[in-house]
Structure formats: structure tokens, C-alpha cells
Amino acid sequence: MTVWSRAVVRWRCSRATNLTHRGLCYNKPSKTDLKVPPAVANLPAGSPASSFKDKGRNVQWVFLGCPGVGKGTYAARLSKLLGVPHIATGDLVRHELSSHGALASQLVDIVNQGKLISDEIIIDLLSKRLEAGEAKGEAGFILDGFPRTIHQAEILEGVTDIDLVINLKLREDALIAKCLGRRICSECGGNYNVACIDIKGDGDKTRMYMPPLLPPPHCENKLITRSDDTEDVVKERLRIYHETSRPVEDFYRRRGKLLEFDLPGGIPESWPKLLQALNIYDDEDKKSAAA
């Protein structure tokens, strides 16, 4: 049996037989199986973020968007706010690369050339991550970086019910600048960005300002650049995304699950507007802004 087949079998079987853990179920759980996160328990019916509430389980969301748009940043924030795990396939790949296992050498060439990793590999890594989460009693998820192709979307559709797909959008010149400015702390793994993006308005486009996300002093001398964050590789990733992943947007749009969100600027400007689009109130964020 191929890696792909084993992964799909494991994925289907784990959901068919373990309905009370993550909400990642092949069969629907009852409303008493899983708890709705307090932060969104009282959302009005019909709002984007309340779609999961009537189904009696935690959120099962997907983040779409070009490489470098900030899927990981916003997915991680929502993950913390809603109390569900943030699962980024990019992180799964980087973890596998750092393991120096049999798969790592194969992944190095793919990643450094900016190519898409095969469905077989992605599904296998994702299946392992979900199995590990099951052991910890995780419920619900926010997926980041998956699905990227129609094939992947169809597989996901066959094993679980996605509630909402958030499609983050950002102008391409800002995307390239963001990718080239990304830095990672080699010690703590923190993600930062040294780029200060200030693009003047042109025609119907307004000025866009995105300040750098600088590291704390103890990380300043430990920053490294991802091997695939070069201009040629970034442009190749964007080209591949436009060819293979945009149809995924149409896939979810036809199902009435797509929420398109144009990022107006950096995190301070975009985060409250994203919450507003999702009809979510972040009490802690309001307190921080007022302090």
C-alpha cells in the first residue's frame, strides 16, 4: 500500500472511530461530545464564525492565501482566541526537514526550488500530526497551508466538514517584500519580519504601510533567513500558487464557505478588521489597545 493510501486510510479510520476528541470526524459527533469555545459561544446565528456553533463542535476552519500573506500569523491568533489547534503544513515540513530523516533529503530539493510538495507527503505529515493531537485530546482545528490543490480539497471534503475558509489577500509587491523580510530565531523558533513596507497609493489603490515585526533583544543576534526566501523562489511560489491554488478558492466559493478578506495593512490595522468580518469580539485585544 502506498504512503498516500495508508495516510488516507488512517485519516478516515481515526475519524470514524474517535468522534469525541478533535471534532475531525468522518461521522458527525453529537452536540454533547464537544464544547464550543467561550469566546464565540454566543455569536449570532448566521455570522461566519458561528457556522460551527449549530453543529455542536469546535471550529474546523481553513486559511487560504498566497505564500507570505500572513496565514500563519492570523491563524495562530485565532487559534489562541478560539481554543483550537493551529496546524500549519509548512511547519510540519520544516519539522521534518530538521529531523534529518529519510524524507528530509527529498524535501530539501523540493523546498529550495519553490515547488509544491506532493499530496502523498503532505497527507502523510498531516495524518501524523492529527494522530498526535488525538492523543492529547485536541478538538477542532485551523488549517494553514492545506488544501492547496483541488485534489487536496476533495480529499479533505471526503473526511471532514469544513465550516469556513478564510482567503487572505494582499497586493503582490507587498507580498514579495514581506517574504524577503521574514526572519526566524534559530534558538526559540520565533517568526519576525525586518521589512518596513510603505507603498504609496496609486490610482484606485490606497497607501499601504506595514511596519516591521522586530524581535526582542535576546533574539536579535540569532535571526536566520529561510532558505526558500529568495526573490526568485518567492516569485516562483507565487506563480505556482496562481496556477494551482486559486481554483481551490472557487471550490469553496461554490459551496458558500469562502470569506475573502483584503488585508489593509499590518497586524494592528488588519487584526481588528478581520475579527469584525468574522463577527468575533476579542475582549483581551480591546483591553490591550486601551492600555
TrEMBL record:
Pfam families in the cross-refs: ADK (PF00406)
Gene Ontology terms for molecular function: AMP kinase activity; ATP binding
Domain of life of the native organism: Eukaryota
UniProt xrefs under SUPFAM superfamilies: P-loop containing nucleoside triphosphate hydrolases (SSF52540)
Keyword Mitochondrion in annotation: no
TM stretches of this protein: none
Keywords: Kinase, Nucleotide-binding, Transferase
Reaction equation(s) it catalyzes: AMP + ATP = 2 ADP
InterPro entries: Adenyl_kin_sub (IPR006259), Adenylat/UMP-CMP_kin (IPR000850), Adenylat_kinase_CS (IPR033690), P-loop_NTPase (IPR027417)
GO cellular component, one term: cytoplasm
EC main group: transferase
EC number: 2.7.4.3
The family this protein is said to belong to: Belongs to the adenylate kinase family.
Complexes and interactors: Monomer.
NCBIfam families per UniProt: adk
Designated name of the protein: adenylate kinase
Gene source species: Nicotiana tabacum
Phylogenetic classification of the source organism: Eukaryota, Viridiplantae, Streptophyta, Embryophyta, Tracheophyta
Gene: LOC107762502
